[in-house]
Amino acid sequence: MATSFAYDVLVLGGGPGGYVAAIRAAQLGLKTALVEKEKLGGVCLNWGCIPSKSLIRNAEIVNLLGRGQEFGFQFDNLRLDYSVAVRRSRQNADRLVKGIGFLMKKNAVTVLTGTGVLADPHTVVVDGQAHTAAHIILATGARPALLPGLTADGERVLTYRQAIVQETLPRSLIIVGAGPIGMEFAYVYRAYGVEVTVVEMLPHVLPNEDDEVAEVVAKAFRKQGIRLFENTRTEQVEAGADGVRVTLKNQATGAVETISADQVLIAIGVRPNSDGIGLEAAGVRTDERGWVPVDAVMRTNVPHIFAIGDLTGKLALAHVASAQGIVAAETIAGVETMPIEDYGNMPRCTYCQPQVASLGLTEAQARARGYQIRVGKFPFQANGKALGLGEREGFVKIIADERYGEILGVHMVGPEVTELLPELSLARMMELTPAEIELFAGQLSAVLEYAAALQQVDTEDVPPTTSVLPLYNVMRDDEPEPSLPVEEALANAPDRQDGYFRVRAVLEGSS
Fold first, then answer.
1. What distance in Å separates the CA atoms of residue 144 and residue 159, rounded to the nearest whole number?
2. What are 246's strand-pairing partners?
3. Within 10 Å of residue 29's Cβ, how many Cβ atoms?
4. Is the pLDDT reported for residue 468 higher than 70?
5. Sign (positive/negative) of CA torsion 442, 447, 453, 455?
């Protein structure tokens, strides 16, 4: 791309959106620079996704060690050192950050270290040095949101950035916000013996997830000893030398209660990093909350300036930012790309135990939009792999349009469900129906086959002696082995009287 500017593309921000956009632009032959004021990889690699996965893995092992009698082993004098878990998480994060630096060099991306500010529509000033570009990609991300008037001091009041590197655990912790960040920290801290309380203003934990999924997670967390306040507003947080006091108000009853802990973690969402980066000088508009609106190819109101990632307010997830970065780079290069019209196709994951994975509409959202739906739901308690793992909580739930069979939503809670989601994400993007998913019996995960099969026959029409049989047995015409009765397989399902809950079933003894 021949221009009079120093660069074809300049990316402001080196997180999972920015560095991916820079690499893709360079791969397409564009002279590219990337500005980063802290560490390559942004929040995800340094203070979010990557270190949290390491801590969660430690927590999983700790919880497994506590179930020794169930698996037939025992030991004495178990000692847990959380500081080692944190140091391991930092090592993993640092390793990947170094890898990104290598990719920058490999793809000939110029890395400009410092704070970048737009001076005009084609100029970014980095610590006093001006750099011009034909196109600019804004990838400045977001920062933790705090309650009004509250400051995170890193000692009593924390955000995820401070909590993720804290090597000494408190005796007790209050977490305000029961989204993925809050729930993952709750799981980790509780595994190491911390008294954990989670407060959520909305009606249930994981408020963006399906109601039934949230119920399973809430039940599991209470079983783990985590105290949950749902539909409860945080009225005040007071920090002192000896800890914190948090005043709560139940939004249903109006009852007010004050609870205390050593620390409080605020996990109520994020705010865009749109202030102080010169958007006004470049003519880039924001909405009333500071997010930068974009079209399906990430273009802002200024045609040669693009925005990606958390800054857009679309879906604050690392893989979404990366996908947006690729679309922006390909659009600038003038090559074929896939515009992002529907963020419902983007998978969403929470890595506490039980894990949560979802995409598309919840059952309540589908009904609210006027869809006539059918729902297939299969519990993990009837799945052999889950029983072998000793993790039987949860289910797979597929919501489909009754008329056309289009998958409207997928909601899973249970063991390793985050690894199952890509299959159904691809199925939804390719507009496969549950009936077509059935055709892959024996190739997809069994619970997905069963959930897809739950679309095919109304349970109210099935005799009491009917069983849910493994689909590979049914489709291969093999002799079916004894299977779980429908009544037991659907034990966790709510009563459904409208006939939309369907199950692929055959009579006992039939082939």
1. 7
2. 237, 259
3. 11
4. no
5. negative
Tokens of 509: 């003894």
Which sequence spans correspond to the domains of the chain?
7-144+271-333, 157-268, 354-489
236: Cα separation from own chain's centroid = 28
Query: pLDDT tens digits, residue range 387-401?
Result: 999 999 999 999 999
Distance, CA of 178 to CA of 205 (rounded, Å): 5
b/e map 403-439, b = 16+ CB within 10 Å:
eebbbbbbbbbbbbbbebbebbbebbeeebbbeebbe
**Chain centre distance of CA 208:** 10
N-term to C-term CA, the chain? 64
Token pair of 52 as six digits: 């949290």
Which of 269, 271, 143, 259 minimizes the C-alpha distance to 198?
259
User: Are residues 10 and 35 in contact, defined by beta-carbon separation less than 8 angstroms?
Assistant: yes
Q: What is the pTM of this model?
A: 0.86
Residue 499 half-sphere exposure toward CB, CA atoms < 13 A: 3
Q: What is the pLDDT of residues 17-75, one digit of tens each?
A: 999 999 999 999 999 999 999 999 999 999 999 999 999 999 999 999 999 999 998 88
Q: Is 8 helix (H, G, I), strand (E, B) or coil?
A: strand
- Radius of gyration of the CA atoms of the chain, in A: 25
Assess whether the region 7-144+271-333 and the region 157-268 belong to the same CATH fold: yes
Superfamily covering domain 7-144+271-333: FAD/NAD(P)-binding domain (3.50.50.60)
CA dist 161 → 42, 51, 265, 314 (Å): 11, 11, 10, 22
In words, the CATH class of domain 354-489 is alpha beta
Both structure tokens of 107: 């793809």
- The CATH topology of domain 157-268 is FAD/NAD(P)-binding domain (3.50.50)
The b-or-e profile of 65-80 (16+ CB within 10 A means b, else e) is: eeeeeeeeeeeeeeee
List of residues 6+ apart from 355 with CB closer than 8 A? 349, 412, 413, 414, 415, 416, 417, 418
Reported residue count of the chain is 511
List, in sequence order, every residue forming a beta bridge with 111; answer none if it has no partner: 34
Q: How would you label 360-395 residue by residue, b for 16+ Cβ within 10 Å and e otherwise? A: bbbbeebeeeebebbbbbbbbbbbeebeeeebbbbb
Residue 91: burial class (beta carbons within 10 Å; 0-12, 13-18, 19+): exposed
Phi, psi values for residue 355, rounded to 5°: -70, 155
Both tokens of 498, joined, read 């409208």
**pLDDT tens figures, 484-508:** 444 444 444 433 332 222 223 222 2
